Amino acid sequence: MAYFTARIRARSVHIGYDDQGQLIKQDLPQTEFVEKVIKLDRILSFTEDHLFVACPHDTVQVWDYEGNLAEVKQRLTAAGVAMV
User: Fold this and answer.
1) 20-53: string of b/e by CB count within 10 Å (b at 16+)?
2) Beta carbons within 8 Å of 16's beta carbon, 6+ residues apart
3) Whole-number Cα distances in Å, 25 to 5, 12, 13, 30, 48
4) CA–CA–CA angle 1, 6, 72 (5° rounding)
5) pTM here?
6) DSSP string, the chain
7) Distance (Å, whole) CA 10 – CA 12
8) Through-space distance between the first and last CA atoms of the chain, rounded to whole angstroms
9) Record's superkingdom (predicted)?
10) What is the pLDDT along the chain (84 residues), one digit of tens a residue?
């Protein structure tokens, strides 16, 4: 199992879609950044300032993280994760 550490804060929970195809999401209160150890196979994607994480009940949480995408890519590559 591979893990990724990051300082994150939860931004929102994406619950699914309504019958018109509109995203159903719950915005979360802004909190301080905390350090987390995240199982890599739970991370769906990274953007410049967010990561999308698979959660129970087929939901996805959006987290802000400290740093930037270039740093994330460098860390993943150094850990042997293939980047194409």
Assistant:
1) eeeeebeeeeeeeeeebebeeeebeebeeebbbb
2) 24, 58, 59
3) 25, 7, 5, 15, 21
4) 85
5) 0.86
6) --EEEEEEEEEEEEEEE-TTSPEEEEE------EEEEEEGGGEEEE-SSEEEEEETTTEEEEEEESS-HHHHHHHHHHTT----
7) 6
8) 21
9) Bacteria
10) 889 999 999 999 999 999 999 999 999 999 999 999 999 999 999 999 999 999 999 999 999 999 999 999 999 999 888 888
Side chain identity, residue 46: F
Residue pointed to by tokens 């991370």 = 43
